[in-house]
Structure formats: C-alpha cells, structure tokens
Amino acid sequence: MVEGVEVSTDHLVGGERLASSDRFSDVSPIDEQVIAEVARGDADTVDLAVAAADGAADAWGRTPPKERAAVLHRIADGVESRIEELSVVETRDNGSLLRSHRRSVMPRVARNFRFFADKLLELEDEGGDTTFNGNRERVTWDPSGVTAVIGPWNAPLMLATWRIAPALAAGNAVVHKPPEWAPLTASLLGDIALEAGLVPGAYNVVQGMGEEAGAALVANPGVTRIAFTGSVETGRLVAAAAAANLTPTSLELGGKSPFLIFADADPDAALAQAVGQFDNAGQVCLAGTRLLIESSIYDDFLDRFAEATGRVVQGDPRDEATDIGPLISREHFDRVDGFVRAGHAEGSRALVGGGPNDDLGGLYYRPTLFVDVPRGSPLLTREVFGPVLTAQPFGDEAEAIALANETDYGLAATVYTGDEGRARRVGEQLVAGTVWVNCFFVRDLDAPFGGSRNSGIGREGGQWSFDFYADVKNVVTAPSSGG
Ligand code: NAD
C-alpha cells in the first residue's frame, strides 16, 4: 500500500503479475523514506515481456480500429475514475505537486488516450485516398509490432502515456520500462488497462534499472519501435543499441531553452511566466532556464524577479499551498548542487537562492538565479534539471537571437514581446521544436512535438505519432483493376 492505495510492485507480463527475486528500493523524495520494494527485472524478464507482447500484437493489431478506440476510451475512463489514487501515488513517488496531478497532469493522461483514439478513427475515415495518373492510391497506417516505451521520472505517467496511447492506437503491443525513481503509477495503469478490456499482453510493464532492464529492452530484436524520453546521454546509448537492429527510434531528450523578454513585453505577464520556470523544482525538460532580458529593463526586471521568487512557497508537495517541492533523489540533489557550487566558484553571482533549503532540509533546493555568468559556463551550456536559472542582458534583436541559439539543445523557446512583427521575425530564427510567444506550455496534441539538435530525433503528436508507430503503406491500384 502506498498512500492507502494498493499498488503491485511486480512486473506485468502477458496480463499476469510476475515477480523477480531481486528488488530495488523506491524512495520518496518528500522525506527520503522507502515506500516500496519493486521487482528488479533483467534481460530474462525483458525477453518474457517482449514475447508476451509479440504474442498479443497480432490479436490487438487485428482488432478493428473502432474497437481499439473504444478500449482506449475505456482506459481513459479508468484513469479519470482513479485520478485521486494516481495523483497521491505519483506525488509520493516523484515529489511533484499533488494539486497539479489532480487538476492537470492526470486529466492529461486520460486525454492522451482519448485524443489518439479519436485520431485513429479520423485517419481511418479520411485515410489517404488520392489519385495519381488515374491510379488510386490508398495510404494506411498498419500495426508495426512491439513498441518499447522508456521514460523519465519528472512526469512519469503523463510522458509514458503520450507514447503508449498512440502506440496502442496504431495497433502495436507495448513493453514499458518505467523510471526506477518513480515506477509505481505504471503499475496502476496496468490494472486500468486490463479492467478496460485491453488484450492481455498488449501492455506489459517491466520494472527495473535503466542500465539493466532498459538496456536489454532497447537491444531486443523483437522490438520494432523505441519511444525514449530522457537525457541526451542515455539517448545516445539507446540510439546505439537501436542501430544494431535498425529499430526506428523516437528520442525526446533534454533542453536548455531560452526565455526572451523584450522591453516592449507585458511586464507582469513576462515576470509571472519567468518565475514559473521554477515549477516542479525546475525538473521540466521544456523549462526556459536561460532568461535573456533586454538591457534597458534588465536591472528592474531582476529586482522584481527576486521579489516575486521570494513569495514562492517551497514545501511538502502534498500541501495545497506549496508551489515547489523537493528534487527527486539524493543523487540528483548532489548533481544540481554540483552545478551551483561550480557556479559560485567560477564567479557567477546568485541573485536569488544559491544552495539547499536548509530550513526544510532533505531534498529541498532553493530556487536559484545566477547573473554575471561567464560565457561557456556549464550553467549556460548544460542541462541542470533543477531550480537553477541564469539571466543575461542583450542589446538588440540580433544579439538576443544569437544568445538564444548559443546551445547544443533545441527543444523549446519562449519569447515575450508586444510587437507582432518582432515575434514573427525572432520566432523564425530560433532553433527549437516549439516556440511560445507570450505564453508557455500550451500545446495542441495534434501539433508536432519534439526537439531540434541534441534535444531529440523525430516529432510526435497527431498524425506524426501514427507516422512513427505504424508501418505506413501506400497501395497503388491501376484503373484497369476493376471494382
Ligand atoms: P535518464 O536518461 O537518466 O533516464 C530515462 C529513462 O531511461 C529511465 O527510465 C532510465 O531507467 C532509462 N535508462 C537509463 N539508462 C538506460 C539505457 N542504457 N538503456 C535504456 N534505458 C535506460 O533521464 P532522467 O534523469 O530519468 O530524466 C531527465 C531527463 O529527461 C532530462 O534530460 C529531461 O530533459 C529529459 N526529458 C525530456 C522530455 C522531452 O519530452 N523531451 C520530457 C521529460 C524529460
């Protein structure tokens, strides 16, 4: 039991729970207490899960799209009926805000299933029927077999279902390796999927370590698609393993996104959104961690930023009043702290925060903003994945764009300006999969999502997802074929 919710800590293979003799301790970031001993899968477990998925893929893939869509909607119903359970377990497991899980994250999990169920039927209806030189061409999105889904701990169920839902909609079976730092909600999803009538074996969960179960899964020749979300470093390992089997791979990786604030921007809106970059203790791939501020408003903006950050409430993520919870683990805390210490040592100045939150102790880290950061500093070039931002002034549009693009990443960028022409010009020149103008985080699930440069390979969302998970086929029929 976790937070009063019954959660299986075993794998789910072929619709049955499967134990492992080895277990790993799942530690809550809220108080560093062990909350579960979870089955630790190995290559043999992965082989069993891939075989189970392969066995189920045919039946699930041949299930008519209407029925597949109905099952996905029933999974969404199941998620919606268990939002409270999913939320309390996820918060205990990864330390993200309970209020966010209840109000937006878990509803989005349900929406992932509903959206791709509806998209499947839309593609079926509209298809890709065209004619070419009198020939009929029909494009279909056929099931491709077994999809491996591997994801991070910062929004485990939401990010995983963003991949699981389209894979299932496309008629594939899934083997999911949840993050070892927050493995529990995947197990609850397994219960929900079975209750919803999903073919047993179409969704399998292998718990365990990335280097062990994860590595075995991406190297398994039975896997026909790999959907990986995580760090650039792990992404490279996954891509190398995938290369051996030529397994198509979608990589959603890290970011070091710029957040540009021009002097003509709405100052209050820009400020609120800039402070919002500390959300989830900065453990957000899309976070605009590099604030680029026009020189004429730089000092004033930073004064107001420091004041506003002082009002941010840090504490237990289960409290409604809390804005920022803890970091995920001691290991990650030390990594974040390493960046901050190195920042102090190189002469960067912490205008806000600059170390652990000693009042709270544990894994709570103060929201931190560095200024006067030397060019080339790791604070500007590497993803910290904690509540650590930098600020840099810029003189004009050209300098803003140059600084914004001075990174190996290209996941997202945010621009605050009151000038539409500038918004268009700047947006066109930023290297990023998503550019937000005077907003942040809003996104239609039908729109393409992914990263440029080291932030990833491929785009998902809407039809882009089906193009990846499915075997796309074009049947060309000559006019003389009758019918
Ligand atoms: P990570 O790369 O350490 O781990 C991600 C997953 O990969 C985990 O489930 C882990 O068990 C598994 N893994 C580890 N080694 C593996 C291997 N050799 N083979 C296969 N799988 C392996 O990342 P993390 O620390 O869990 O998450 C943080 C990272 O994720 C950040 O870089 C963040 O930006 C990124 N992220 C990206 C997006 C996006 O959509 N682009 C979203 C959220 C997080």
Notes on the protein architecture:
The protein is of the alpha/beta class and 483 residues long. 41% of the residues lie in helices and 19% in strands. It has 15 helices and 20 strands. The strands form 5 sheets. A 7-stranded mixed sheet has the order 14-15-16-13-12-17-18, with helices on both faces. Residues 150-154, 159, 177, 179-180, 210-211, 214-215, 218, 229-231, 234, 237-238, 252-255, 285, 383, 385, 411, 451, 456 line the site of nicotinamide-adenine-dinucleotide.
How are the secondary structure elements laid out?
Elements (H helix, E strand, L loop, with lengths): L10 E3 L2 E3 L4 E5 L6 E6 L3 H20 L2 H17 L1 H12 L3 H29 L3 E3 L2 E8 L3 E5 L5 H14 L3 E5 L6 H12 L7 E3 L4 H10 L5 E5 L2 H14 L3 E4 L5 E4 L5 H9 L14 E5 H16 L19 H17 L2 E4 L15 E4 L6 H4 L6 E7 L2 H8 L7 E5 L3 H10 L4 E4 L18 E2 L4 H8 L1 E7 L6
Parallel strand pairs: 7-8, 7-10, 8-9, 10-11, 12-13, 12-17, 13-16, 15-16, 17-18
Antiparallel strand pairs: 1-2, 3-4, 5-6, 6-20, 11-19, 14-15
Helix pairs in contact: 1-7, 2-4, 2-6, 3-4, 4-5, 9-10
